[in-house]
Amino acid sequence: MEILVCVKRVPGTLENEIKLNAAKDDIERDDLVYSVNEWDNYAVEEAIQTVDRLGGSVTVVTVGDEEAEEVLRRELAMGAQKALLLNDPAFAGLDGRGVATVLAAAAKRGGYDLILTGAQADDGAAQVGGMLAAMLDYPYASLVNKVEVTNGKALRISREVEGGAREISEIELPCVLSIQTGINEPRYVGIRGLRQVASADIPCLGAADLGLDDGALAPRVRREAYFMPEPGMGAEMLEGDTEAIIARLLEMLKDKGGLK
Amino acid sequence: MAPIFAYIAHNDGVIDETALELLAAARKIDAEAPVTAVVAGHGPGLHAAAGALATAYETVWKFSHEALAYPNAEALRPVLVSALPAGAIVLMIHDTFAMDLAPGLAVKRSAAYVSDVVDIRGMEDGTLGVVRQEFGGQVGSRVAVESAGGMVVTCRAGSFAPAAPAIAGTVEDKSGEIGVVAAKRRFLERVVPEAGDVDITKEEVLVAVGRGIEAEENIDLAVELAKSMGAAVACSRPIVDARWLEHSRQVGTSGQTVKPKVYLACGISGSFQHMGGIKGNPFIVAINKNPGAPIFQVADVGIVADVLEFLPALTEAVQRAR
Ligand SMILES: Cc1cc2nc3c(=O)[nH]c(=O)nc-3n(C[C@H](O)[C@H](O)[C@H](O)COP(=O)(O)OP(=O)(O)OC[C@H]3O[C@@H](n4cnc5c(N)ncnc54)[C@H](O)[C@@H]3O)c2cc1C
């Protein structure tokens, strides 16, 4: 099975306190710690396990600049066989449709049986997988939390729906799935693994290679500004030394029925 | 004035409470535009759903087909692509079904797509201004969406105060417009989660841990605190994904809905999927080391602290107070 997994380099939310730049048109990126989008890691792990069982290969692809290469290398170290960087000045400022258009052009060159994306990324849009599938005319399922290959022509999948319920269906190959966290346990990537792929060749394709002109990529959805949520509407912040905070908290907990 | 269509989910005839939120969102896009509710399914449930919607929406479009009995985005999409007029604006609640349907619907209709919208600023010069959140709710963004080729917009549940008209709308049966339905994805069955050892939905006090707890062995800090308070331990999703606690402990849209009196959120950022599982307006205490964590916007009391140090100190104080 030939599997393509779309990944994205994003600022980690655990390590970073996100702040805005002076112009408020972007976040302050200078000191951010970046990593691969959490959901994408699960998608890559699922692809690797599937290929381990059935044969074939896993290709990881990203739309990004040179720095995005580091996440491709990380996924190579995890066990993906091939990586592909889609980089072009024309790809700056793409909207979700633009990203899907670039990925679709790359996917068409590869003849993949299965294409995986993460369920969502840092913008929370949950859009690229579904758009990509529609552009390729492949069936699509979002929030997939189990994949079984039945007969080589179709997959038996489980989707997560509200309340922790699961929806089981059959989907024909080739198809696109967006992968939900919890489907597996992504393997650990150590320094040694990273060193082994440090000099791996990562081909790079631009707009011309993919046959894309500016018209196809023109954004219809544009971010105009970022803003920080209004302070003050939220919690009463308890300040002072830990002892004082705890004393005050205990009073509140007693008052609200929090100590039984 | 582009017509607006709101796709409304129903559960065997019972309308989702968000149906009126979408009507409110539609009015914020354009107070004058005609708004049509769209409902799909099969059997008596569909009939009931359409009837219920006609008490709030002037027009209701009903699509009846066996293949739509269970909401299958792959089957519904071509139906909507051909039935809706060019340039239409389609609204949906940003739920797991919308994530399945909406992006592909936008592509196939050549419409702009914007998802998980939390507010609408209105239409100006052919662009729709909307508000979204990024980075797990840490920052807001103002987004402009070109409306020329139509739009598909998904709205976050609970973000729009429900409109409450009482009217006598009409139901139009549009089933005749459904062509051959040959989806490449076939629904087989729905599996509901099994119950866990503790039923957090019945607990009055919950000590909930999130990724800020950092390691499996630190879960004990929450267990000790909960024991001292007479509370139960709940958690956010990453804790379940890491297999540190069982799924029945997960609070949120894809976990349990809880209604405690007191909710202690420890190292939880406060994503809307997590907060969506907390009902009944409990007293929420948030402990987080990031002063910018979104949970501080919704908690009653906030403490900026490292949970690994704070929880043992609190446990000790609770024990002493007994
Ligand atoms: C379709 C869908 C359904 C979902 N359903 C659910 C659901 O049901 N429930 C759910 O919870 N999530 C759900 N999620 C995931 C959700 O989007 C978030 O990813 C998740 O809630 C984040 O969990 P968290 O707050 O524990 O982790 P994070 O967002 O990583 O936050 C961890 C927090 O801990 C703080 N922290 C770190 N270290 C410390 C420390 N030592 N002391 C104090 N604070 C610290 C950080 O500042 C941060 O705020 C769903 C996602 C999708 C796409």
Write out the strand line-up for the largest beta sheet of chain A, numbering strands in chain order. Answer: 9-8-7-10-6-1-4-5-11
**What hetero molecules are bound to the protein chains?**
flavin-adenine dinucleotide
- Helical amount among residues of chain A, as a percent range? 25-40%
Please report the number of helical segments of chain B. 8
Instruction: Please state the oligomeric state of the protein chains shown.
Output: heterodimer
Major sheet summary line of chain B: 7 strands, parallel
The helix tally of chain A amounts to 7
Which range does the strand content of chain A fall in? 25-35%
- Major pleated sheet of chain A: 9 strands, mixed
Morphology of chain A:
globular
Average of pLDDT of chain A? 94
Low-confidence stretches of chain B: none
Helix and strand string of chain A, N-terminal first? EEEHEHEHEHEEEEHEHEEH
User: Pairing-aware structural class of the strands and helices of chain A?
Assistant: alpha/beta
Order of helices and strands of chain B: EEEHEHEHEHEEEEEEEEHEHEHEEH
What does this structure look like?
The complex is a heterodimer of chains A (260) and B (322). Chain A is an alpha/beta fold and 260 residues long. Helix content of chain A is 29%, strand content 26%. Chain A is built from seven helices and 13 strands. The longest helix of chain A has 17 residues, at 38-54. The N and C termini of chain A lie far apart (57 Å). In chain B, 25% of the residues lie in helices and 29% in strands. Chain B contains eight helices and 18 strands. The radius of gyration of chain B is 22 Å and the shape is elongated. Chain B is an alpha/beta fold and 322 residues long. The longest helix of chain B has 15 residues, at 307-321. Strand 13 (236-237) of chain A pairs parallel with strand 18 of chain B, so a sheet runs across the interface. Flavin-adenine dinucleotide sits between chains B (96, 136, 210-212, 214, 236-238, 250-255, 267-269, 271, 273-274, 277, 288-290, 293, 306-308) and A (13-14, 119-120, 143).
